[in-house]
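Pair request: fold both.
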Amino acid sequence: QVQLVESGGGLVQPGGSLRLSCVASGGVFSINGINWYRQTPGNQRELVASITSSDRTNYVDSVKGRFTISGDIPKNTWYLQMNSLKPEDTAQYFCKAEVPQWLSPDGEVWGQGTLVAVSS
């Protein structure tokens, strides 16, 4: 069973950078893609960035040019490099893996999240 653990969140000043990590274990070979979401209190989770097994990436418009999603398959780790951070980037960030339904009925596995706070 695939499990995901995020890390790398914290408090950073506007204009600063953070790199979030998402480490996968168990059945990593079955992961078809990784997505980073973020959520603020009272709001739905927003898809921020995604990467497929063929390294195709996609970003929400608000982070294009500032965030970069990447994967290090030998380390079973995916990253979200966040530069030029803004206060509106403050959120809980979650990693989600897309997996076959024989691993998860809804075809997805979520991590527990890591908090990013951008403030002076």
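--- second member of the pair ---
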Amino acid sequence: QVQLVESGGGLVQAGGSLRLSCAASGSIFSINAMGWYRQAPGKQRELVAAITRGGSTNYADSVKGRFSISRDNAKNTLYLQMNRLKPEDTAVYYCNADWIAGWGAGGSWGQGTQVTVSS
């Protein structure tokens, strides 16, 4: 089984910064695409940012220029640096990864980490 564990969420004032981390563990041969999603109360889960194994990135329009996604392939860890946070960024943030293990391939979600931005 492959597990993803997020950390780094919390409460921050508007204009502040947070850095989220997502560590993957298990019998992983390699991790391909990874991404951050978020879900606000009463809304659907949406893609925030994604990154390929080679480092190509894409962002939701709402976070372009403020958020930066990165990864450390040696550590199987994903990051999201969030700057100039806004109250509308408040949500539970989830990590997602597509992986290949010795026994098969699949995708996993983390348990989520709460980000709250106060005005």
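Observation on the second member. The chain has a mean pLDDT of 95.
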